[in-house]
Amino acid sequence: MTWELEMPAVFWMKQAIEYLLYAAFYFGNVHFLFPKLANKKYGFLYFVILCLFIYLLPIFLRWIRNITDLYAALDKVYAAVGQKHYSSDHWDTTIVIAISLIVVTLSYLSAVAKKMQRNQLAYETLERERVSAELSFLKAQINPHFFFNTLHTIYALMDTDQPAAKSSIYNLSHMMRYVLYDTRNDRTSLSKEIGFIEDYIALMRVRIADDVQIIVDKQVSMPDMEIVPMLLLPFIENAFKHGISALQPSYIFIGISMTETGLKFEVRNSLFEELGKQLDDDQGIGIANTRRRLDLLYPGKYNLQIERDSFAKEYSITLTLMK
Questions:
Q1: CB neighbour list of residue 145: distance below 8 Å, 6 or more residues apart
Q2: Nearest Cα to 55, choosing from 22, 93, 2?
Q3: What one-character DSSP code corresponds to residue 188?
Q4: Contact at 8 Å (CB) between 240 and 207?
Q5: Is the dihedral of CA 190, 196, 199, 203 positive or negative?
Q6: What are the φ and ψ backbone dihedral angles of 88, each rounded to 5 degrees?
Q7: Hey, which residues does 219 pair with through a beta bridge?
Q8: Is the N or the C terminus of the chain less surrounded, counting Cβ atoms within 10 Å?
Q9: Do the Cβ atoms of 188 and 182 come closer than 8 Å?
Q10: pLDDT of 3 over the 60 cut
Q11: What element of type H or E holds 146?
Q12: Whole-model pTM?
């Protein structure tokens, strides 16, 4: 059997050269030839190089066999154990071509896979940069929008209740500290977000009649849960803007609770016929931007329901954020 034979040194030299050439071409194709030449400009040159490798390698190895007189050396080894050596140039050339085709195919497929991986990584990087830029733009819109609405509230108090206006300015400064510093990060704790909402509600109370019913129901078992800053405020702003009437009984209900799947946030407020057309689920910068932020930051992990019940005269928003 062949494993009982002691092969000559020229045989192992030829084998080493052959497999080193296979390995060199494989890695050369994956890391250099394909990245540099597999394109519209150099595609034909790349194809020619692949064909030359398959064509020239058998010729080169035949030359190695001839100058080392490999077949004669193998004949002596086989004859020493009473066997005959059946190898021929035609058979060896066929094997080399077959292996070369396999090496070319595998190296090409590996190069294609690496290119797809690089393209995917580049796409993901660009997508993250795009999302980050879009979120920065949305946040830049939301913050001035909130600030403008709050200043408008304080301005309305200046002529009617100056002490309340001063207190509101103090509350606003506390809220702006949250806006300027805590919203720099992508996430904040739920307890901080709730504190900000409570400050906002206190600020709004000074400008509405005492008979307006405002109910805040908090059932939070995970105050350290992370949430996107200022994500809930636009819905509350919307309720104060459209859910209160100076002529009719009004109410606002704000509920924050934990469920098995995550956070449930609910806002219900009075619905008035004269404001019905304005209460579109995408109305205003705040609601529209918040919906877009949800799409970007909670893809597939949120459920937003906006309903208008004309019979019960109630407008409701329910947002569920999944863990």
A1: 285, 286
A2: 93
A3: E
A4: no
A5: negative
A6: -145, 160
A7: 257
A8: N
A9: yes
A10: no
A11: helix 89-157
A12: 0.56
Taking Cα atoms as reference points, which of 206, 210, 208, 209 lies closest to residue 168?
206
Q: Which residue has the higher pLDDT, 205 or 137?
A: 205
User: The domain 158-322 belongs to what CATH superfamily?
Assistant: Histidine kinase-like ATPase, C-terminal domain (3.30.565.10)
Residue 200, class by beta-carbon neighbours within 10 Å (0-12 exposed, 13-18 middle, 19+ buried)? buried
Both tokens of residue 214? Answer: 């405002």
Half-sphere exposure of 287 (CA within 13 A, CB side): 21
Q: Can you read off the two tokens belonging to residue 315?
A: 């407008």
The pLDDT, as a whole number, for residue 9 is 74
Residues carrying CATH 3.30.565.10, the chain: 158-322
The string over 141-161, giving b where at least 16 C-beta atoms fall within 10 Å of a residue's C-beta and e elsewhere, is ebeebbeebbeebbeebeeee
Over residues 184-224, the pLDDT tens digits come to 777 889 999 999 899 889 888 877 877 889 999 999 888 88
Distance, C-alpha 212 to centroid of its chain = 44
- Tokens read off for 101: 């085709």
Please tell me which residue, 140 or 76, carries the higher pLDDT value: 76
| Residue count (the chain) | 323
- Tokens in use for 104? 């070319």
Q: Are 143 and 183 in contact (CB under 8 A)?
A: yes
Comparing CA positions, the residue from 284, 278, 289, 280 lying closest to residue 317 is 280
> CA Rg, the chain, in Å?
38
Give pLDDT tens digits for 40-76. Answer: 888 888 899 889 988 888 888 778 777 776 666 666 6
Q: Residues 78-87: what's their mean pLDDT?
A: 60
What residue type is assigned to position 57 of the chain? Answer: L
Are 230 and 179 spatial neighbours (Cβ–Cβ below 8 Å)?
yes
Using the 8-state DSSP alphabet, how is residue 212 labeled?
A: S
What are 263's strand-pairing partners? 258, 321
